[in-house]
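Re: beginner question about structure tokens

> Can someone show what the tokenized structure looks like for a real chain? I only ever see the sequence side.

Sure, here's an example I had lying around. Input first:
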Amino acid sequence: MKSIVRVIAVLGLAVGVLGGEAALSFGASAPELTEARGLLQQAADLAATIEDNYLRGKLLGNIGAVQAQAGDVPAALRTAARVRPDRIGWNGDALRDIAMIQAKAGDYAGALQTVVLIYDQMEKAYTLSDIVKLQAQAGDIDGARRLSDTISDASWKAAAVRDIAAAQAEAGDLRGGLATAVSIQDQSWRASALADLATAQIRAGDRAAAVKTLSLAVGSAAKMTDRALRDDTLGTIAVVQVRAGDREGARRTIARIRRKDFRADADQCLAVMQAELGDISGAMHTVAALQRTVDQANALRRIAIGQAKAGDRVAAEHTLGFALQAANRSRDTSSRASALGDIAVAQAEVGNLQEALRIIASINPTYMRETPLQQIAMMLAQAGDIVQSSQLAAQIGIAEYRAEALQRIATAHTKQGNSQEALAEAGRQVAPLMRARILLGVAEAIVEGSMAANPQRAVRRP
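And the corresponding structure tokens:
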């Protein structure tokens, strides 16, 4: 506790009473938030009755985060305390979410006071690292440095410094970002920081500098002792090398990856990047070189999503057809089912709902249909298609997945001005999980609407 108080003092932040003055400046008396807070309390009371520790903890954490967004930090902390009152430290995820909401609103003092309550030291360091990132992105580089110095875990401290370097680069201070990046002792985070810096250099139009920076990143990655992490990092660097126009350098970097699965992931990313840069022929050549058909399917699906986002739906549909063929050639049942599920979701994203449902119906084992069904149901709800979303949600067999889909549908109802229908559906549900998720969905929509209409409620404290 004393260490965090010292941090607050060093940063020059106003210290309020925990759970009282630390509440966000959202306008506590705002009429439109009164209903939301009541619904959230009802949802928390229902969630606390759920016997499954995982489901109860996850739901209470989600509720606490929205309570914090609504400006009711005291209620959020009380909700977090209900995650597992009989076990110390089980509410770390919930407390972390609350702290991040506070930090995003600029209430760093309140966020740090919430961090005090996190029992697990690693999770505490992780949360502090992310608060450093927010502070740096807000332009307070000096304050972010001071806070990063208080992080006890060396790895998460290095991660925080990486984020400071990235913030400097994004703000246009490329030289400062480079100096910060090379000061990192941890080779994995240094390599990551250099890759981020190279990305900023590319955006600034200096591809030559980016290529040099990426060479430094490869050198740092080569010194890493964790082979899996090294291979993953090399794959990330290779993608940025393609963005910088150094395709030969990217291929050399990928060749240094020892594990086949990581090399395949890197080649998939390479193919996607080639397609984004307009080199469709090169992308297809890269895809064809992938040894596993399921990897080919995943690469083609990702290329199709990029084509759809670029506005070329016809090309996206064509590419998804090839992805489907590749997935069906896979002999591994689980991998094929997973790839088919991802392709189905992509088909829904480009507007081919019927084709998406046809693909889902072909997935075996049948339990692997649940995830794509939920994803598409939630996608449709977010797009405002409540009828189709509700029909799909009714087909979901896993209670957790169905409840989360119902939550999104409730949010959609409320955004369309029909919260009473969502509340009526909550009344028709028997299971506390379903009822609580629906109430949470209604409250989320009210809070989001209030924040959008009154952005001054989330202003940064002086």
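Each token stands for a local structural state, so reading them left to right follows the chain. The radius of gyration is 24 Å.
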